[in-house]
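Data availability (excerpt). All sequences and predicted token strings are deposited with the supplementary files. A representative entry, DIS3-like exonuclease 2, is shown inline so that the format can be inspected without opening the archive.
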Amino acid sequence: MTDFDGSNHRDISSSFFSASTTNSPADKSKNKGGKGSKKQVFESYMTSEEVSQGLKRGELIQGQLRINPKKYQEAFIPSPNDKRDIFLDGIVSRNRALNGDVVVVQVLPPEQWKVNRTLCEGASESETKREHVVQKKLERTPRPDVIVEDRYNDRDELVSKVQNIALSDKGTVVYIVEKKHSRAATGFLKFLPDKPFAMFAPVDHRVPRINVPLADCPLDFSSRPGDYISTLFICRITNWSTDSNFAEGRLAKTLGQAGEIEPETEGILTEYDVDFSEFSDEVLDCLPKNLPWTIPPEEMKKRRDLRKECIFTIDPATARDLDDALSCKQLPDGNFELGVHIADVSYFVEEDNSLDSIASRRATSVYMVQKVIPMLPRLLCEELCSLNPLTDRLTFSVIWKITPEGKILSEWFGRSVICSCVKLSYDHAQSMIEAPDKMFSAEELPPVDPTHPIDEIHQAVLNLHSIAKNLRAQRFSGGALRLDQLKLSFTLDKETMMPQGCYVYQYRDSNKLVEEFMLLANIATANHIYRKFPGLALLRRHPPPKAKMVDELQELCDQLGIDIDLSSAGALHKSLNTTLGDDEYTSARKEVLTHMCSRPMQMALYFCTGVVKEEQQFKHYALNVPLYTHFTSPIRRYADIIVHRLLASSLSCGPHLGLSTEEVEKQASHCNDRKTVSKRVQELSSELFFGVFVKECGPLDSEAMVMGVLDQSFDVLVLRYGVQKRIYCKSVSGLDSFRHHKVGKKSELTLVWTPDDLEKAPVEQIISVFTLVDVQLRADGAPMKYSAVLKRPGDSDS
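Structure token line:
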């Protein structure tokens, strides 16, 4: 991991990171009139007593705020009755809450719905005429697409279409239950003449502009503000009063030049409150002192010794934190003894010490393109816990007796010791699967334990592959669903860590093999710990998709002529894998349809079984299993460590559990939050690197397929790179005009291109879902940002 070099940054005051805004209701005595008082912009918050009573009476609704990244005036919270999301119109309605905050909302009576007048007029016109035409103003300078696109909020743009907003309940925030947003932002400073403060403009438009004291700014900022025009800063909000459109804050750090990878990366981590500091001495004191560490003899006696078995790991070639290993031995009766062996992290992370405390706070490792922010210190992640080859390691094992068809005959859980005989990459395992009869030489593989011939390892991989194929087929025929979305990977320069190339990651049989047995182990563990601790187990549930959104998607698919069955996870999986045509664009159409089907899906969640009363709600929708948990990645997920502790306690091979239902639920909720953050940070890291790649190597040409159509723009999947971009019709060069047409849920744009030869008729291009277009990705003026530029039909080589 490349550490951030603090010497390169001007650390204005690290103490400001502890500054926080108050979570209590705003003081009601302020701004209530009187001579010289300022006019209130925002309503004061209700008291906690008023909120409690209002929630009990059903007059108020609690939920997590989502602000649309493309239209920051629009925000939503989920409706409790599975109807349309509740719409918060404008910044005043949000009442100083930020994206991700848990808020209490009062639904307004219809007479107070102050929806933008033009929106309402547009809605009525759209409803009556079903078509409107926008004439392009050629003299208008196109506005670059500078807002970071947020995959989580794609559906908000669709929900926010005029006709949907017109039908949504409107609300206003009356209380902030939990400030989940970090209140930190990256952005730029703007000098304000004759003011004792500067204006901080966040890159994320969902965060308000912030007044910061000039004393926090660089010493020569007032005299030479132009020198800092492209300097990226971190600011933290300290207060936002009811009488101001602007928040107050303190400048915390100068990051460096906008558009450079390290300053931008540190900005992302800080905004999302990811702890990337070095582990303290107090934490490191919890680690074993005598190195090189060996397993104590008394510990060996408590465990099943599997060191002579043929056990190996299969991971990405660059992986250093090896959580899991596999074994597969054929038995005389033709069945197999199949094992999943997981690093025994809970042996090293004892309950309630400093190491446990930091791991529970971090909750997950965060994987960025060029580095990992680990949950645990490097000594554990990469050495003592990592199942490195030719080294004795402590593990938790699940061992089954299983038939070649995948039927489980018996199951064993227990603490064990293994010695992995080889560290295979996914490429090595894939080569073995694709060449079942080949004799692999030692030169083609990493170092192998000489007690296990290469042929033995090869045969074990083939047996695992065969059983995994059967298990997978049974899962999907039994009603499971997998929504694969394209993932962008990068090749980096080893010296500069700059992107040299990028490609769409290939998910192959070797990946499927490992995934299948991790799922099997997680399902088995979930059933075991729930049986032993029905009120204390930490499981993972996946609620079914939002019914209203499913109905709307079904209607849209029907009108597009797509034969899709959304009645269950299994029916959807079957539909997605029914051929969408039979040509070179079949996989692209499937990717677009998969994306459409992902919008109604809800997030999977950790929970404590003692809190969710209805067992039916434990179910995992996509996997179509009644019980599921995470057991297989304790090096990088804290939820798995809790599951390991529960498992150890159930087998009487661990300390007595000091956990309560409330503690497990609190930790489950925190793990949910940090997992969401980790995923978003990973996406932003990928977007950052791709933005730099476009700038350094662009412009880039590619075919693209339309994924969604709005009234003045449309979204495309750029096929060569797997990225999604929005194209705004008003910014398309060479376009004379465009018309939007809508029938039911089906939306179409007709683009009218100005002919090259004025004597010829204009060229019309129809844009609807699955339309193929040619685009060029070009760097924008803003750092890291790029646009997808639509090419004129027939100009694919221009």
